[in-house]
Specification:
mainly alpha, Serine Threonine Protein Phosphatase 5, Tetratricopeptide repeat, ANK repeat
């Protein structure tokens, strides 16, 4: 399981109902997997718009992604996922945040 929480696994797998249940039960929306990824980043990186929308509406930090500084918006842009880019921008993700892949500004 790569040291992932149940919420991270559900978010990465696109299981929006499971994500809802876990969040309702108090799962940490900011908890990071062993790879340093937040559940929102995992959902965006896997292309799961419904999960990303739910986590966004549930208060997940839109600017936290990987521990090295790559954000969910970076991931959506890199993959050309316009619907996710739109969702994150509408949620006021920081469109000016710049990071190199090694985590340096």
């Amino acid at each position: 399981d790569q040291g992932w929480t149940p919420l991270a696994i559900a978010a990465s797998g696109g299981h929006v109902e499971v994500v809802r249940i876990l969040c309702d039960a108090g799962a940490d929306k900011a908890g990071r997997s062993s790879s340093g990824a937040t559940p929102l980043f995992l959902a965006v990186n896997s292309g799961h718009t419904d999960v990303a929308r739910y986590l966004s509406e549930a208060g997940a930090d839109l600017d936290e992604g990987l521990a090295v500084g790559l954000t969910p918006l970076h991931s959506a842009v890199l993959a050309g996922r316009a619907e996710l880019v739109q969702l994150l921008c509408e949620g006021k993700a920081d469109v000016g945040r710049a990071r190199r892949w090694d985590g340096k500004t």
